[in-house]
Amino acid sequence: MSEERSLNFIEEIIENDLNSGKYATLITRFPPEPNGYLHIGHAKAICLNFGLTKKYGGYTNLRFDDTNPVTEKTEYVNSQQEDIKWLGFQWKNELYTSDYFDTLYDYAVDLIKKDLAYVDHSTAEEIAALKGTPTEPGIGSTYRNRSVEENLDLFSRMKNGEFEDGICTLRAKIDMASPNMLMRDPILYRIKHAAHHRTGDKWCIYPMYDFAHGQSDSMETITHSICTLEYVSHRELYDWLIEKLGIFPSKQYEFARLNLSYTVMSKRKLLQLVNEDFVSGWNDPRMPTISGLRRRGYTPESIREFCDRIGIAKRENLIELGLLEFCVREHLNKTATRVMAVLDPIKLVITNYQKDQTEILIGENNPEAEDKGGTREIPFSNELWIEREDFMEEPAKKWFRLAPGSMVRLKHAYIVKCEDFKKDAEGNVTEIHCTYIPDTKSGADTSGINVKGTIHWVSRQHAKNAEIRLYDRLFTVESPDAEEGDFKDYLNPNSIEVIKQAYIEPYMSNASKDIRYQFIRKGYYCLDDDSTPELLIFNRTVSLKDAWAKTNK
RNA sequence: UGCCCGAUAGUAUAAAGGUAGUACAACGGUUUUUGGUACCGUUUGUCUAGGUUCGAAUCCUGGUCGGGCAACCA
């Protein structure tokens, strides 16, 4: 490790705790609620929690925070596990908050016995009304002074199913005048006659997040419980419960969640996009979910690198989408197999190349790789497909692709000179006629001719057809959450473009989902899940940087 | 009008009282059989007003701005 990276504030805390001997082993946890798919924001938390124990030793638990049976599903548990593994991390223990329901119940009884909790028969509305506001203190419920015996009895009857949903709750008895709203007698348990994805019908009362999270951390002797900023004000309650219960003192630390430009990151909003069919599902390649990014062609390495680069701090942030794209380009540049594909084809005829002749050319698969990634055979003939945008009837300044009279190199092949072109009635160019220069063959060029432009191509008679899906940002504005009105008003209508008729090298008939491809001069692509041997379908992960498009703007 | 967090180039993130640095972006250049990659260079910053100090991004005080807090969600 030669590169010295400075520590983030959590690493500083951990190093201090480890050096001072406060803890011998670092233990963290990643605690998703199984009520949706994991997204890139979760990836930040995953990389943080797992990365810390990878760096300092110790281990990380995966704990599903499943205290609300009505929103949670096993489908989500499975997808979340798959995503974490795919990102490259392995948890020590697979745990569920629901594993602790018995202990949590005992903790509640303990609190009641200490006269620190009571059963409240107020309605939700009454509780809200008596809660006060941030600027005015709340008022104690009339049930606040029930005796310990009565509370014990009522709480066990709650557990036994004697009450309907919403009839009563168990509340902590703390301070209705606290400046921290969460300390105004927070609800600890509520009644929900709902089947739980793991405990089934065993329980009809479920603990609230605040009565489950800290104690679960404590039971697992989590040394550093890391969460996002919105839990800062929960920390006082977290500490209060641990202290009153006299259990292992896990400590909570908060960092700023990830916000990514041109997307939304809340599970609620992502679920809405899925449910209302704005996208094809949680793993739509335009989604910022881990599964969406995976299908889009992002690699775990690139996502980890991204999480590393964005850093960990406490200030609100909005990361530019460009950084994520940089990270995936950086990784794919080193690893992707280069092939040629023509997305918007126009016919190029080489008039001095023999009609029935086919020549096999050799192409390096990856000039960035040590062994050049091996080579492949590329058939060449007198009729090719080239990219429509690589020809300009009236060339712009500094244009060094094809134009009447100009020369370009055909990648891996010969230099050709444009002699003529044809147009249809509407004025669209339909065909380009060139002559090739025989002694300019790639790797054996003895001509001494130098051309500035190199373009990609596919032999017309050998080309495979492919469908190509181009993606763009999901939203038209940087921060859809911050805009007026509904975030869906800002969906990008052009976030997907499907090209039905693209041509690709015959080599790609053996394309694999495990291999990432660079379509030379175009971008990085991967085989989509919808692809079949009969119809190859590719997703554009990200385009290549295009300096020409920029200067031309 | 309460409490809590925060504020360093366009975006992120360092500097633990002592030269404001790094990455991405932008701009310019070199190399190049991908207008890609690689490499080199340039521009741009401590929210504000006081105070402490030989010296403040850092410590203190006031202000400003941004975010969070009044779910039987997590």
Automatic annotation (TrEMBL):
<dbReference type="InterPro" id="IPR004514">
    <property type="entry name" value="Gln-tRNA-synth"/>
</dbReference>
<feature type="short sequence motif" description="'HIGH' region">
    <location>
        <begin position="32"/>
        <end position="42"/>
    </location>
</feature>
<dbReference type="Pfam" id="PF00749">
    <property type="entry name" value="tRNA-synt_1c"/>
</dbReference>
<dbReference type="InterPro" id="IPR001412">
    <property type="entry name" value="aa-tRNA-synth_I_CS"/>
</dbReference>
<feature type="binding site">
    <location>
        <begin position="33"/>
        <end position="35"/>
    </location>
    <ligand>
        <name>ATP</name>
    </ligand>
</feature>
<feature type="short sequence motif" description="'KMSKS' region">
    <location>
        <begin position="264"/>
        <end position="268"/>
    </location>
</feature>
<feature type="domain" description="Glutamyl/glutaminyl-tRNA synthetase class Ib anti-codon binding">
    <location>
        <begin position="336"/>
        <end position="436"/>
    </location>
</feature>
<dbReference type="GO" id="GO:0006425">
    <property type="term" value="P:glutaminyl-tRNA aminoacylation"/>
</dbReference>
<dbReference type="InterPro" id="IPR020059">
    <property type="entry name" value="Glu/Gln-tRNA-synth_Ib_codon-bd"/>
</dbReference>
<feature type="binding site">
    <location>
        <position position="65"/>
    </location>
    <ligand>
        <name>L-glutamine</name>
    </ligand>
</feature>
<comment type="subunit">
    <text>Monomer.</text>
</comment>
<dbReference type="InterPro" id="IPR011035">
    <property type="entry name" value="Ribosomal_bL25/Gln-tRNA_synth"/>
</dbReference>
<feature type="binding site">
    <location>
        <begin position="39"/>
        <end position="45"/>
    </location>
    <ligand>
        <name>ATP</name>
    </ligand>
</feature>
<feature type="binding site">
    <location>
        <begin position="257"/>
        <end position="258"/>
    </location>
    <ligand>
        <name>ATP</name>
    </ligand>
</feature>
<dbReference type="InterPro" id="IPR014729">
    <property type="entry name" value="Rossmann-like_a/b/a_fold"/>
</dbReference>
<keyword id="KW-0648">Protein biosynthesis</keyword>
<keyword id="KW-0067">ATP-binding</keyword>
<comment type="similarity">
    <text>Belongs to the class-I aminoacyl-tRNA synthetase family.</text>
</comment>
<dbReference type="Pfam" id="PF20974">
    <property type="entry name" value="tRNA-synt_1c_C2"/>
</dbReference>
<feature type="binding site">
    <location>
        <begin position="265"/>
        <end position="267"/>
    </location>
    <ligand>
        <name>ATP</name>
    </ligand>
</feature>
<dbReference type="InterPro" id="IPR022861">
    <property type="entry name" value="Gln_tRNA_ligase_bac"/>
</dbReference>
<keyword id="KW-0030">Aminoacyl-tRNA synthetase</keyword>
<protein>
    <recommendedName>
        <fullName>Glutamine--tRNA ligase</fullName>
        <ecNumber>6.1.1.18</ecNumber>
    </recommendedName>
</protein>
<feature type="domain" description="tRNA synthetases class I (E and Q) anti-codon binding">
    <location>
        <begin position="454"/>
        <end position="528"/>
    </location>
</feature>
<dbReference type="GO" id="GO:0005524">
    <property type="term" value="F:ATP binding"/>
</dbReference>
<dbReference type="GO" id="GO:0006424">
    <property type="term" value="P:glutamyl-tRNA aminoacylation"/>
</dbReference>
<dbReference type="InterPro" id="IPR049437">
    <property type="entry name" value="tRNA-synt_1c_C2"/>
</dbReference>
<keyword id="KW-0436">Ligase</keyword>
<feature type="binding site">
    <location>
        <position position="228"/>
    </location>
    <ligand>
        <name>ATP</name>
    </ligand>
</feature>
<dbReference type="GO" id="GO:0005829">
    <property type="term" value="C:cytosol"/>
</dbReference>
<feature type="binding site">
    <location>
        <position position="209"/>
    </location>
    <ligand>
        <name>L-glutamine</name>
    </ligand>
</feature>
<feature type="domain" description="Glutamyl/glutaminyl-tRNA synthetase class Ib catalytic">
    <location>
        <begin position="27"/>
        <end position="333"/>
    </location>
</feature>
<keyword id="KW-0963">Cytoplasm</keyword>
<dbReference type="Pfam" id="PF03950">
    <property type="entry name" value="tRNA-synt_1c_C"/>
</dbReference>
<dbReference type="InterPro" id="IPR020056">
    <property type="entry name" value="Rbsml_bL25/Gln-tRNA_synth_N"/>
</dbReference>
<dbReference type="InterPro" id="IPR020058">
    <property type="entry name" value="Glu/Gln-tRNA-synth_Ib_cat-dom"/>
</dbReference>
<dbReference type="InterPro" id="IPR050132">
    <property type="entry name" value="Gln/Glu-tRNA_Ligase"/>
</dbReference>
<keyword id="KW-0547">Nucleotide-binding</keyword>
<dbReference type="InterPro" id="IPR000924">
    <property type="entry name" value="Glu/Gln-tRNA-synth"/>
</dbReference>
<dbReference type="GO" id="GO:0004819">
    <property type="term" value="F:glutamine-tRNA ligase activity"/>
</dbReference>
